[in-house]
Specification:
Its main location: other. It is built from 15 helices and twelve strands. By secondary structure, it is of the alpha/beta class.
Length: 364
């Protein structure tokens, strides 16, 4: 019997032992040589902390606001597809864990539980992730449905005009599961003779012509605030502000899209500076420790999102595993704040971290 996990990373091994190889590889894998997948985590390690002492940290308050919604800590759940492949509870289990932890879950467009099932599973704030279908009437129908079901924001994922080359999925001939969410709208069952049917599904449904001007179209069909997920440069951050979005998620899709793109934590500050404080900036990719969250906040993120750790927790223990993952990260963040002299999230400043670039410049 495997020992009880004492940190978030240890859930990955538990998930590997429980899941069929095809499904584990789908969740764990990245694009091509997986350079970005690895760098997402390694880049955090190269940032050091600058703790302050003799500060009253007898009480730590981790709570924060995201688009006006108060959550217990700056930790949100990233959209992750096909969660019933990890555990029979699927996204409903994750949603209940998010509600119990008083945080926000972003439901994946490719949820294996129906949007209705997740919406009715518990009383909580949830956002909805959107991929844009080639047929705009299909996209409009899905957006209307999400709004009616009470999802509070749209997270438009903009870094997948085509799916990245995920070689593990090609070798395993990853099968894209049928998704009942889209019955009557379009088929999610696509066969491939050469590799991943998931790749075939994306290529046949995703709108590769999506442009910045289309943000105006989204704003015309919904009253929900719109966040764009997949920004990695200051130039695109400026365009996002100009387009009138409500927020940005700095993301490289967990290293699953363009290999050799930068680690998200390494470009976070560039994006934050480009927005000039006009809209909130969130970040995902590589977060495995409370210290990682602290570093992201110090570099200007309002919150982080976690994806793989949540799915590994779900695979290992269902809803309870997801709750444990979130609580572990919260516990570690609280300790990091206490040891760094930061009683509240607002007390975490740029002076609390030193980046690799700063260390190198100091040596010149």
């Amino acid at each position: 019997m495997a020992p009880e996990p004492v940190n978030v990373r240890e859930f990955q091994q538990l998930a590997k032992e429980k899941l069929p190889k095809m499904y584990y590889d789908f969740y764990a894998g990245g694009a091509e040589d997986e350079s970005t997948l690895k760098e997402n985590m390694e880049a955090f390690r190269r940032i050091t902390l600058r703790p302050r002492v003799l500060v009253d940290v007898s009480r730590i308050n981790m709570s924060t606001n995201i688009l006006g919604y108060r959550i217990s800590a700056p930790i949100m759940i990233a959209p992750t597809a096909f969660q019933k492949l990890a555990h029979p509870q699927g996204e409903v289990g994750t949603a209940k864990a998010a509600a119990a932890s008083n945080t926000i879950m972003v439901l994946s467009f490719n949820s294996s539980c129906s949007f209705e099932e997740v919406a009715s599973s518990c009383n909580a704030v949830r956002f909805f992730q959107l991929y844009v279908h080639k047929r705009r009437d299909v996209t409009a129908a899905i957006v209307e449905r999400a709004e009616k079901l009470g999802y509070k924001a749209l997270v438009v994922t903009v870094d997948v005009p085509r799916i990245g080359r995920r070689e593990a999925d090609i070798r395993n001939k990853m099968v894209s599961p049928k998704l009942k969410n889209f019955d009557g709208l379009f088929s999610t069952e696509h066969k491939s003779d050469t590799g991943s049917s998931l790749e075939t599904y994306v290529s046949q449904t995703r709108d590769a012509s999506l442009q910045w001007k289309d943000i105006a179209w989204f704003k015309s069909i919904t009253n929900l605030p719109i966040l764009v997920k997949g920004i990695l440069t200051g130039e695109d951050a400026i365009k996002a502000v100009e387009a009138g979005v409500a927020g940005i998620i700095v993301s490289n899709h967990g290293g699953r899209q363009l290999d050799c793109s930068p680690a998200t934590i390494s470009v976070l500050e560039e994006v934050v500076h480009a927005t000039k404080g006009k809209i909130p900036v969130l970040v995902d990719g590589g977060v495995r420790r409370g210290t990682d969250i602290f570093k992201a906040l110090a570099l200007g993120a309002q919150a982080i999102l976690v994806g793989r750790p949540v799915v590994f927790g779900l695979a290992a223990k269902g809803e309870a595993g997801v709750r444990q993952v979130i609580e572990m990260l919260k516990t570690e963040l609280e300790l990091t704040m206490a040891l760094s002299g930061c009683p509240t999230v607002k007390d975490i400043t740029r002076n609390h971290v030193k980046t690799e670039r700063e260390r190198l410049l100091s040596m010149l």
